[in-house]
Specification:
The chain is mainly alpha-helical. It is elongated, with a radius of gyration of 20 Å. Helix 3 packs parallel to helix 7 and helix 4 (72-103) packs parallel to helix 6 (136-149). It contains nine helices and no strands.
Length: 195
């Protein structure tokens, strides 16, 4: 009976989320204000990185995309998940990378397998303890990138990914704060058309 109750709540939550996303005058299905704000946040992030020498906007743009929500509360949750997960996954990844190279200075793929298992379990525990369970997925991505695809300067790489993600999330939050749905609807007189 308990499982059925949870299933019912999940179905209702899913229906509510679908009902909340109503694109305003979208000639293309699904394209609405949130879509436009997401694209704007990604472009502004990439524009900022055009002025930073030797920088790559990829992870910052990903942070901006993940950080955009339907409203500020949703953006805080989405951006917080991405940022917190990246921080936790980054530090765990760094620690495991260090441990692997302490045991095998040249690296050992077979040692990485139990380290990934350990790291993901530890990351899940920390995300749950800090009440950021949504940080598990982005944290896992960063952890795996550090362990399996990190350049020689792994510490710089991990710290740059954390900073880049934070920059993208801050830009997404700023766009959502400066351009809330109510303000855009008012500017384009869309609020009057609802009456």
């Amino acid at each position: 009976m308990e499982g059925q109750g949870n299933k019912y709540v999940d179905q209702n939550s899913s229906q509510n989320l679908q009902e909340e996303h109503v694109p305003v005058h979208a000639p293309i299905p699904g394209l609405g204000l949130r879509s436009m704000k997401t694209a704007l946040a990604a472009v502004l992030t990439a524009l900022l990185y055009a002025f930073l020498p030797d920088s790559n906007p990829t992870f910052a743009c990903i942070g901006a995309i993940f950080g955009m929500g339907a409203d500020m509360e949703d953006s805080r949750r989405n951006g917080g998940n991405r940022f917190f997960g990246t921080i936790i996954g980054g530090f765990i990844g760094l620690g495991l990378y260090w441990l692997e190279h302490l045991i095998y200075p040249e690296g050992c793929y077979w040692l990485r397998l139990p380290l990934v298992f350990l790291g993901i379990v530890l990351m899940i525990v920390l995300c749950v303890l800090f009440r950021w369970p949504g940080g598990v997925q982005p944290g896992g991505v960063v952890l795996c990138i550090i362990l399996f695809n990190t350049p020689a300067h792994h510490i710089d790489y991990a710290i740059h990914r954390m900073i880049d993600t934070g920059v993208g999330v801050v830009i997404a939050l700023s766009v959502n704060y400066l351009l809330p749905r109510s303000r855009i609807e008012h500017w384009f007189h869309l609020d009057r058309e609802k009456i």
